[in-house]
Task: inverse folding
């Protein structure tokens, strides 16, 4: 990953068993140096595009697609706000079954209902009574048409076809099917799909991003530990005051 090339170095007290003395240091990359987008990049939404991660995409393949440079994969990751690539990058489709099976322990558990999602309900004047996509449990109910807007009839809007509900005082998940079940497996698939949409930096701003990144990660030479903007040193704990 090209990101490590941009990180400054630090002199760290040598932990090696074959060191010459307790005052030996080794020079390593300071992976704990935090980086963030500059205010200019962070506040300028026009610098970003939406990108849908396809099945099998990796940060380096996306960087190659967008910037013709696989080593700029760290820009894809940082701009997307990803801090844990293992948990925040979408799994491939073929991995979802094994992931869910390992998480829930059995196919039976995978197919248990995780929650219900409401269907849209409109009244006879096309007013929305219930929004679609709300997460509810099996006991969810709403007041019926005979209570709220009599005389009125409600229509349940569904991809399988609209259905007019009976004029009564109450509608429920169990009796009137005003919400559809989502299994544990389906829930995991939905969460995985949500990870696919990320922000990516437009190509013309890549060099500015790199320049800003270098400014953020370099050391402040006014501090006592900084030997330069690219090199710092840890305290030697072997020195006894």
Result:
């Amino acid at each position: 990953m090209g990101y490590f090339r941009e990180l400054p170095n630090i002199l760290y007290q040598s932990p090696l068993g074959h060191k010459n003395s307790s005052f030996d240091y080794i020079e390593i990359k300071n992976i704990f140096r935090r980086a963030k987008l500059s205010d200019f990049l962070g506040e300028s939404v026009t610098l970003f595009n939406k990108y849908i991660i396809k099945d099998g995409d990796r940060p380096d393949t996306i960087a190659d697609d967008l910037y013709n440079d696989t080593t700029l994969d760290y820009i894809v990751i940082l701009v997307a706000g990803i801090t844990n690539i293992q948990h925040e990058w979408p799994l491939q489709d073929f991995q979802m079954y094994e992931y869910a099976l390992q998480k829930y322990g059995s196919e039976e558990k995978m197919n248990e209902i995780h929650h219900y999602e409401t269907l849209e309900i409109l009244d006879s004047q096309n007013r929305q009574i219930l929004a679609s996509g709300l997460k509810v449990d099996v006991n969810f109910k709403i007041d019926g048409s005979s209570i709220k807007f009599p005389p009125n009839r409600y229509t349940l809007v569904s991809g399988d076809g609209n259905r007019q509900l009976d004029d009564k005082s109450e509608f429920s998940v169990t009796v009137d099917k005003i919400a559809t079940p989502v299994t544990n497996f389906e829930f995991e698939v939905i969460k995985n799909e949500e990870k696919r949409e990320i922000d990516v930096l437009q190509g013309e701003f890549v060099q500015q991003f790199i320049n800003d990144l270098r400014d953020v990660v370099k050391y402040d030479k006014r501090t006592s530990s900084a030997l330069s903007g690219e090199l710092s040193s840890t305290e030697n704990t072997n020195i006894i005051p």
Q: What stands out?
A: The chain has two domains: 3-90+197-233, 96-189. The CA atoms of residues 140 and 154 lie 17 Å apart. The longest helix spans residues 93-104.
